[in-house]
Amino acid sequence: MASKPVTVGDLIHRVASSCLSNRLPCNYTLRDSVDSDLDDDDDDPFADAVSSSDKYRRSPSAAEVEVEGQQEEEEKLKIWEEGGQEEERKAAQGAERARDAEALMAEVFDAVSGLRRAYAALQGAHCPWDPDKMRAADAAVVAELRHLARLRDRFRRSAAAGHIPRPNPSAPPLREAVAPYEAALDDLQRQLQSKQAEVDGLKEKLAAATSRRNGRHHPSKANGPGGAPTADLFTTCAEQARAATRAFSAHLLHLMRAAGVDVAAATRSLTKIPVSSPQLAKHALEAHVTRSLLGGFEHESFYLDGSLSSLLDPAAFRRERYTQFRDMRGMEPAELLGVLPTCAFGRYAATKFAALLPPRVEEAILGDGEHRRVVNGGTHPRTPFYGEFLRAAKAVWMLHLLAFALEPPPSHFEAGRGAEFHPEYMESVAGVPPRAGAGMVVGFAVAPGFRLGNGAVLRARVYLVPRGGRP
């Protein structure tokens, strides 16, 4: 067969078919091929076909494309592996922080438990009273509180350094979380103060009981020949009366704190003395109790009636008073008033109780006015509080009987506010006498003094303040 002549149209058709049936290199198009064909030498009819064939041979092979794909996959896997490692590292850090926080919280709970045990030991040392155990328990409580403070500082430093995760903003603040524990601590402190006041009252009772026992066991030292009243016996009874009034005032202060009454405000209302400290409140209450019970001491019946028996027959009156003193000395006041509620001592106790506690104060401390209603009805309550009051009232009543049994009767005196301190006639309730020229004056009188017929002086008890100052 004769070969068909090759024309330009056949060449163009071949080249176009080759371009359409084979993959062109990137950015290489048919238009570019045609343009380049037009730019080539027109004399060579095979130039376009040869050029297209060369370009087809320079296109990437399948192996090269597969290698490039593997490299891209490896890069993607490497990125995924790096991301996974970062997530694992963050998870490990979070777990470590959580373990640190859990360990810290465990230490906090252990410290709080230790604080509770130490405070329980401190309470146990109060009853029975044991000073050594008190000191050891107090040191243990302080040590536990310091441990908690160190844990708090450790938490703050760790949080600042990023070792412990910051609290969630949506979580309650730390102050709200700690508030219940602070309230419980305040309540424990109030209970501790109440227990301390109760302990002070028990100490005063012990001192009064010891004084009474010494007077009973050694009557020869107090009574004169033939059992006549003496100045020494009066001094002993005066100390017993002071101890009894201190014990009752401490008990009253304990009840105020237990009832949640503002002690400073209540004391100011009762005594008209500006109170600024618990110790001052104690002395101010003692002054109020003493003033209430000794009011009218200079009269033979505390101004309960208009009797003048001491003027009509002084000797018989003195003998009668001393007989009443000896008869009543061994009696319990509650038992006596249970038999004779309207006797002279019963009228004295009812009158002084009304003067000692106004109705509003009685309701605030005792919860109601039942005591006053019973007393106004002509009888006397059988309650622990009224029993404490009767012990103090009996001590003052006994002192009054003995004072009018002596010849001449003792005269009592009281230091006025702002008076100069004289150690011969006054003693400071603080227990430490001021130095000479210290410029201390009387802030208020706590208990009156007595001048006896033999010239002896029972000094008045006063609360001292700097000159120009206020209690």
Automatic annotation (TrEMBL):
Biased composition range(s): Acidic residues: 35-46, 65-74
All residue ranges annotated as the GIL1/IRKI C-terminal domain in the record: 413-463
Source species, domain of life: Eukaryota
Pfam hit, one: DUF641
Occurrences of domain DUF641 (ranges): 97-214
Region of interest (Disordered), ranges: 32-74, 208-229
Example GO BP: negative gravitropism
PANTHER family on file: PROTEIN GRAVITROPIC IN THE LIGHT 1
Protein name: Uncharacterized protein
